[in-house]
Structures are given as structure tokens and as C-alpha cells.
Design a protein that fits this description.
- The complex is a heterodimer of chains A (about 160) and B (about 475).
- Chain A is an alpha/beta fold and about 160 residues long.
- Chain A is built from 5 helices and 5 strands.
- In chain A, strands 2-1-3-5-4 form a 5-stranded mixed sheet.
- Chain A starts with 8 loop residues before the first strand and ends with a helix.
- The relative contact order of chain A is 0.23.
- The N terminus of chain A is likely disordered.
- Chain B has 2 domains: about 90 residues, no CATH class; about 325 residues, Cytochrome-c3 Hydrogenase, chain B (Orthogonal Bundle).
- In chain B, the strands form 5 sheets. Chain B has a 5-stranded antiparallel sheet. A 4-stranded mixed sheet of chain B has the order 8-7-6-11.
- Chain B is globular.
- Chain B starts with a strand and ends with a strand.
- About 5% of the residues of chain B have low confidence.
- Classes of the chains: A alpha/beta (about 160), B alpha+beta (about 475).
- At the A-B interface, strand 3 and helix 3 of A face helix 1, helix 4, helix 5 and helix 6 of B.
Chain lengths: ~160, ~475
């Protein structure tokens, strides 16, 4: 695996911002962007697609922020590994697929985490349900905490990420 | 006793969808339906909003073709204002639409369809995907991503954001092409042309090895519809509508999109929220027509750029009159990528794209406006009715996937007739049916993508609801 030239934390928020709670991922990424944290970049998209593997491969650590309809009613923060055998390569791809693409096509799969926020309301709308609203703030706190510690040395960053939650 | 096979959902297409294949008492395929189970409701959601917000809102319908919606919406706004936009704004909108064609077609060809061509139908689904493509030809996979990035770069250079650029507005566009942006696009063009050349080489081999697929993947007579210029040249954003039939004859030409309700009817089929438009003069379902790359190349007389025209001539020889096989959507897609690159190259030498006169200004001069543009998947209509304050009273969108719905049903039925025998649901048959749908590159983007919503389930169901056979994927 080649040495990563851009030791950044990349926050990718994805989802449909017209679909109520489904838009929480982009809103989290936009909130992070507005805070202008050093060493933290953001990417907002409606759905993951192959070209996103390029910026992912250029990052040290990636956090994918997504809405989840089948998860417990808490924000979850899970370590992700590349998964190159997924057959569900639609217009929208899975984060594990993106990691595998980053590794196989661009030569580097970063350390990655999946921050999922419970979603209960997916009809057309631009407001979050109370559950997702609470999840939005909790997710932001998680990322803020991680980003704050992430601005330390590269070695320390890895240790922090490994011990997070 | 008749039976129904259900494939739910289709892999590698956007959104949540399922396919039902109906068998007769003898176990032969009698019909098929491609269902869309996600209720859109988008048109209702927009009512009461100012029309000026619509290019920004409608582009959020879809993460893959937001540009198509924003451009059609901006054109509907032009019609409400009853203005002709400045020439520079028209060219800039066209340039963005070409970027959209390139990025969308690149995803469809390289990452959704090429695995099937290169690895073969009977390769296990776990390998017959983009990773199988990487294993077989890493450079091709990478080049495909780079080509898609190039299209995205054009969109970003103009709109400042790759997704959802709030850039096209009623009356024109917000900003011109910068010198820096032009230099970026120009520098990337040689690589994009080279990738397209490789794609054509792959496609020519595919046509040699997939003669049966050309014969049975959606090869049937139908009408075709698309925009053309006044002289019949390929169009993607301006021009007027033309219908041709399977003999290649023009049956209606230079139709004004503002009057589309005079010649396009909409039927809603049971089990699906997708509207199925048809050519009114022939009625439903005889008025079935196809849109998208295959249709655009069938309705036009030339591409208007030399390299694409050379391929266009070869393409035309594949049909007797019209080219009727939906498998050849892939070929048409490549020709459109090439034409788009040539037109982008031409625009790089056009000083008008740097012009600052970009927006016509007016109030509401018409209470109804229709915008039409060619999205990668086909002709897209935005029809708005407003009050005197410009607040939307009624919205009607006709999207490409809806217009191709009936053709997709016929395609599935045609393929299934060749492979379905009795109650068995063989994996290779599913792969072929899914590819038949993918020929149209359908986009059902009103769907959410949230985690936990992508299982694949295949069921054989008796009329009384009994599940006779079931296959699960994913």
C-alpha cells in the first residue's frame, strides 16, 4: 500500500436532502464544513459513486455519515473494512465498496468508520424527525471529538481513532 | 394455473424496483412488468413554491442526473418569463449538459455494463461487477472512473459543485466559464478521447461475441422520440421533438414541447407509480415509444461532429430503417460520449463562453411553461403552472425512465421467453433480464438509499399468493 500523501480526515455525508431524515448525512457534513476545522475535509453527495474512490484514497481516515432505517435507535460508529465482493454496485454504492475501489484502483484504502444515524421519516420533506434531530447533534459531537484529537501527530491520530468509542 | 416470478429489486440500477414475469398455464412467459414501488410525490411537494426555486429543488431529485433536472427546470422558467436567454447562457447550459452526458454514460458503460461484457453472463454475481472488471482490466476500470470524473469536472467548473449546482436559473445562468476552468477542461480532453477509443474497441468485440443478445435483448418495433435540430442534427438541449417509427420514417417532426400534451398521453399501470407515456395518435399501448441514446440516434440524421458521425454511419447500418435492439443502447451511449467530447472541444475555442451577458430578466409573462431537455436516459419534461406571483399551482414531470417503462416490460418478456422454463429461476436468466433493464440505464432516484434497503429477492408466486420458489441475493 502506497504512503498516503494527504493525512486528512475526510467526512463524507450522503443521502437525499429532499427525503426528510435521509438527508441527515449531508447536513452533518455541511455542519462540519462550516466549522472550518484544520485537517478536516468534507464531501457532500446524494449517493456514493465510483469517482469518490479517488478522494477517499487520498485521505488518512474517512468517516461515512449516513441515515439508517434498520439500526438501533442510537447513533452507531463502526469500523469499516473494504468489501470487494459486493454485487450491489448500483448507481449508488456501499461505503465498503468505495473502500475496495480506493484500494484496488487508486492504491490506498484509508482507515474508515461508518457513522449511522437512525432515520424514521423518509417522505418528501426537509425537516428531521425528533429521533434524527437528536442523532444529528450526537453525530456532530462524535466527529468534533474525533477531529479535535485528530489534529495531533499522525501516530497519535491512529491511536485516537482506534480507541474512539 | 398461471404463475408469477418476481425479481425484487434489480441490482446495479438506481432505486428500489422489482420485476414480475407472468407465466401461462403451460409455464411459458406471457408477459412481464417492471414495477417501481417507490411513490414519488415530488410534484405535490413543489406546489406553492416560487418557480425560481425549482432549478435548485428539482436537481435534488437525483444524485446521478441533477443537471438534467436543473436545466429542464430553468427552461420551464424561461417559458414562464417568455424570454430568449442570451446566446452565451445557452452555450454554457449546453456545455454543462454535455458534461452530464459524459459522466452518466461513463458510469453506465464502464461500471454497470462492462462487467457483463468482459466477464460473461454466467460468471457468479459476486465476481461479475466492477471488482471483476478491475481484476480483468484494471486500467479500463480506472479510465472509466477518470472519464466520469472529467464529466463531473465540467459540471464543477461551471456550477462550482459537482452535485446540485444551483447555477442554471430562469433566464440564463449565474456565471460564465473562467479561463482557469477552460484550461482544466482543455487539458483533460486528450485523455477522455483516448478512453473513449478504448471503449469503442471493447464494444466492437462485444458486438462480435453478443450477436444473440443483439437479437433478443429488447429487439422489437416501436416508436422513438427525441430532440432534433431544424436540419435533423442530433440535439441534447435545444431543437424540437421528432417521432420516428421502426422503419425509420418520420411520423411527426418539429413538435413544440410547450404542446406536448397534444401528442403524449400518460397511463399509470397497476402495481407501479411510474407513469407510462405513449404517443397519443396511436393510443395505448400501440403508441409505445423509446427515448434515450438509442432513440436520439434513431430520430436524428447526423451527429454534427466528424468522429461521432463516422461511428453514427456504422450504427445506422445495424438496422433496417431504425436500429431496434435495446442492447445497442450501449453503442449509442458511446457515440454520444464521443459527440459530447467533440462538442466540448469545439466550445473550448468559443470566446462567447467567457461572456458576462448571461441572464435575461422578466416577471411572469405566461402562467404555464414547459422546459424540455435531453437527459442521458432520455427526454425530460418539466411542466409548471404558476399564479401571477410565480407560485407553483401545478407541476408535471415526465422522466426518461417512465417513457421507457413499456419498452422495458417488452424487453424483459422477450428475454424471459428465451430462458424461463417451468418454475426454475436460474441465476444466468436473472443476470440477462437484469442486463436487459440496464440497457436503458433506468434511474429511479426518488428512492432513498438508507442502509438496509437493498436485498434481492426472487419469488415464484401462484395466483393465490403461495410462494412456489424463491431466490435471495445480497
Amino acid at each position: 500500500m502506497k504512503k498516503n500523501p494527504n493525512p486528512d480526515l475526510l467526512v463524507i455525508g450522503y443521502g437525499n436532502t429532499l427525503r426528510s431524515d435521509d438527508g441527515v448525512g449531508p447536513k452533518v457534513a455541511e455542519a462540519v464544513e462550516a466549522l472550518h476545522w484544520s485537517g478536516v475535509r468534507t464531501l457532500v453527495c446524494q449517493q456514493l459513486s465510483p469517482e469518490h474512490a479517488d478522494p477517499i484514497s487520498k485521505s488518512c481516515t474517512v468517516i461515512f455519515v449516513d441515515a439508517a432505517v434498520d439500526a438501533p435507535e442510537q447513533v452507531q460508529f463502526r469500523k469499516l473494512e473494504p468489501n470487494g465482493s459486493s454485487q450491489l454496485m448500483a448507481h449508488a454504492a456501499d461505503p465498503r465498496t468505495m473502500l475496495a475501489l480506493a484500494r484496488d484502483v487508486f492504491g490506498h484504502s484509508p482507515e474508515a468508520w461508518w457513522l449511522t444515524i437512525p432515520a424514521v421519516q423518509l417522505d418528501f420533506g426537509e425537516k428531521f424527525s425528533p429521533t434524527t434531530e437528536a442523532g444529528f447533534h450526537e453525530a456532530l459531537r462524535h466527529i468534533q471529538s474525533l477531529a479535535k484529537q485528530f489534529r495531533q501527530t499522525d501516530d497519535k491520530k491512529r491511536e485516537v481513532v482506534a480507541n474512539f468509542r | 394455473m398461471s404463475k408469477r416470478i418476481v425479481i425484487d429489486p434489480v441490482t446495479r440500477i438506481e432505486g428500489h424496483a422489482k420485476i414480475s414475469i407472468f407465466l401461462d398455464d403451460a409455464g411459458n412467459v406471457s408477459d412481464a412488468e417492471f414495477h417501481v414501488v417507490e411513490f414519488r410525490g415530488f410534484e405535490k411537494f413543489c406546489e406553492g413554491r416560487p418557480y425560481t426555486e425549482m432549478p435548485g429543488i428539482t436537481q435534488r431529485i437525483c444524485g446521478i442526473c441533477p443537471v438534467s433536472h436543473t436545466l429542464a427546470s430553468a427552461k420551464a422558467g424561461d417559458a414562464l418569463m417568455a424570454v430568449n436567454i442570451p446566446p452565451a447562457a445557452d452555450k454554457l447550459r449546453r456545455l454543462m449538459n454535455l458534461g452530464q452526458m459524459i459522466q452518466s454514460h461513463a458510469l453506465s458503460f464502464f461500471h454497470l455494463s462492462a462487467p457483463d461484457f468482459l466477464l460473461g453472463w454466467d460468471t457468479a454475481p459476486a465476481q461479475r461487477n466492477v471488482f471483476g472488471l478491475i481484476a480483468a482490466n484494471k486500467e479500463l476500470a480506472r479510465a472509466g472512473i477518470r472519464l466520469r470524473q472529467f464529466g463531473q469536472e465540467i459540471i464543477e467548473v461551471l456550477g462550482d459543485k459537482k452535485i446540485h449546482p444551483a447555477w442554471a436559473v430562469p433566464g440564463g445562468v449565474r456565471s460564465a466559464l473562467s479561463e482557469e476552468g477552460r484550461a482544466k477542461i482543455r487539458a483533460w480532453l486528450p485523455e477522455a478521447f483516448a478512453t473513449t477509443k478504448v471503449a469503442f474497441e471493447l464494444w466492437k468485440k462485444t458486438m462480435e461475441t453478443h450477436k444473440r443478445e443483439i437479437q433478443i435483448f429488447g429487439n422489437f418495433p416501436s416508436l422513438f422520440m427525441g430532440l432534433v435540430a431544424e436540419d435533423g442534427t442530433w440535439e441534447h438541449h435545444g431543437g424540437k421533438l421528432r417521432f420516428t417509427d421502426s422503419s425509420g420514417s418520420i411520423i411527426a417532426d418539429q413538435l413544440d414541447a410547450q404542446n406536448y400534451l397534444d401528442y403524449i398521453g400518460e397511463s399509470v399501470q397497476g402495481g407501479s407509480y411510474l407513469k407510462s407515456p405513449y404517443y397519443t395518435s396511436l393510443g395505448f399501448p400501440e403508441g409505445i415509444y423509446r427515448v434515450g441514446p438509442l432513440a436520439r440516434l434513431n430520430v436524428c440524421e447526423q451527429m454534427g461532429v466528424p468522429k461521432a458521425d463516422a461511428e453514427f454511419k456504422k450504427f445506422k447500418k445495424l438496422g433496417h430503417g431504425a436500429v431496434t435492439s435495446s442492447f445497442l443502447y450501449h453503442y449509442a451511449r458511446l457515440i454520444e460520449i464521443l459527440a459530447s467530447l467533440e462538442l466540448v472541444e469545439r466550445y473550448m475555442d468559443d470566446a462567447e463562453l467567457l461572456d458576462g451577458n448571461l441572464r435575461a430578466d422578466a416577471g411572469i409573462n405566461s402562467l404555464r411553461g414547459v422546459g424540455v431537455s435531453e437527459a442521458p436516459r432520455g427526454t425530460l419534461f418539466h411542466d409548471y403552472t404558476v399564479d401571477r406571483n410565480g407560485l407553483l399551482q401545478k407541476v408535471n414531470l415526465i422522466v426518461a425512465t417512465g417513457q421507457n417503462n413499456l419498452a422495458m416490460n417488452q424487453t424483459v418478456a422477450q428475454i424471459a421467453r428465451h430462458y424461463v422454463r417451468g418454475n426454475d429461476i436460474p441465476e444466468p436468466m436473472l443476470n440477462r433480464i437484469e442486463h436487459g433493464i440496464r440497457c436503458y440505464d433506468p434511474c429511479l432516484s426518488c428512492s432513498t438509499h438508507a442502509v438496509g434497503q437493498m436485498p434481492l429477492r426472487v419469488q415464484l408466486v401462484a395466483p393465490d399468493g403461495t410462494v412456489l420458489n424463491e431466490i435471495a441475493r445480497g
